[in-house]
Amino acid sequence: MADLQKNVQAAIDELVESGAERGVQVAVYRRGELLVDAVAGVADPATGRPFTSDTPVYVTSTGKGVIAAVVHVLAERGVLDYDAPISSYWPEFGARGKDRATVRHALTHTVGVPGVPVDTTPEDLADWDRMCAAVAAAEPWWEPGTATGYHPQTFIFILGETVRRATGKSVSQVLHEEVAGPLGLSGELFFAVPPAELPRLAVIEDAQPPMEMPAEMLAQIPFFRVVHGCTAAPLKAMPDAAYSNRPDILTSDSGATMTARALARVYDALMNGLISAGRLREVTSAAVSGMDEVNGTPATWGLGYTLGFPQALGSPTVFGMAGSGGTAAFADTATGIAVGVTKNRASLGDFSTVERVARIVADA
Which residues are registered as beta bridge partners of 36? Predict the structure, then answer.
């Protein structure tokens, strides 16, 4: 295991020295033991502030795995039921034929509300109540439960508001009370970042210029299509560096800002007592498999987690979530290994750093 720490550190040092990355964190846990705590590079290129293990990073959809963990903890306590209609907690959500959509549907991206209004802005996404109202009023793209399609923006609002209605507390408060606090991660695991903590965060930069594509080309890509006036990817609110560094996004419950160490610890805890062994089996078993109606690619989901990623581990017992900027957190129930990878150079859709770390872990 000493070699694992050394090999991971050497890999991320090389990535930073080569200019492929600006700053990287990697953490690996196994059965409560921190095996790897590696960090390289700078958190803020403008000041040279170094990346440290406790530097929080905006991780986009990697945070979906953490909101799923909150839901599973509440299900364990009987506060939420996977098969209960979302509208039994959040009545407004039952509009336009969504009354039979369940918490399980939300966790498996089958609820049928993958899009937000096409003109949605970052300011809108930072306004929790505004977005929840839009999601509740949305017409589903398919009958809930009959198809699967990635819910990039709406996942956090659907599950987060269900948590809020069931508990009377914001999803950030529930995260702190049920997960971050008990695991000793209060300063490293956030949805809404307290304003006083903002100077600690890594500054995100773009690996390449923001994407510009003619509208007619975008229309041919499933991810950008418009249905019922909504799209999974509103062009005014793409998760580039400018978006990811906005204080209003970072301090809202729609964000996800975490260290690699905290992410790996959450996955380790899921496998070691945060939820029961029986629930873990249910959570990490294939619940839905088929062609993704939003991404246009095959997908297999457990309850809140994609299964089989990263490819370097090549195992169906791996579950986790990745973020658009190239971050990820995942675990393998067969080996007990849990991994978090964060970085501040947003390489949209490029998971080569994650895959490189996964190969080192697989070799170990």
Answer: 28
Phi, psi of 337 (to 5 degrees): -85, 135
HSE on the CB side for 245, CA within 13 Å? 14
Question: Please, how many CA atoms are within 13 Å of residue 40, restricted to the half-sphere of its CB?
Answer: 25
Whether cis (ω within 30° of 0) applies to the bond prior to 195 is no
| Residues present in the chain in total | 364
What torsion, rounded to 10 degrees, do the Cα atoms 60, 69, 178, 250 define? 10
Residue 346 pLDDT > 70, yes or no? yes
pLDDT tens digits for range 65-105: 999 999 999 999 999 999 999 999 999 999 999 999 999 99
Report the distance separating Cα 72 and Cα 76, nearest Å.
Answer: 6
- HSE (side-chain half, CA atoms, 13 Å) at 270: 35
Residue type, 268: D
Q: Which residues fall within 8 angstroms of residue 71, CB to CB, at 6 or more apart?
A: 80, 103, 107, 159, 162, 163, 304
Name, in order, each residue with C-beta under 8 angstroms of 3's C-beta and a sequence gap of 6 or more: 364
Question: What is the tens place of the pLDDT at every residue in 328-341?
Answer: 999 999 999 999 99
pTM of the predicted structure, to 2 decimals:
0.97
Residues pairing with 225 in the sheet: none
For 242, residues 6+ apart whose C-beta sits below 8 A from its C-beta are: 210
Q: What phi and psi, each to the nearest 5 degrees, are found at residue 292?
A: -75, 120
Determine whether 13 is exposed, middle or buried from the number of CB atoms within 10 Å of its CB (0-12, 13-18, 19+).
middle
In the chain, how long is the greatest CA-to-CA distance?
Answer: 56
The residue among 314, 265, 303, 305 whose CA lies nearest residue 27 is 265
- Classify residue 269 as exposed, middle or buried by CB count within 10 Å of its CB (0-12, 13-18, 19+): buried
Q: How far apart are CA 338 and CA 352, in angstroms?
A: 18
Dihedral of the alpha carbons of 109, 113, 114, 117, in degrees to the nearest 10: -160
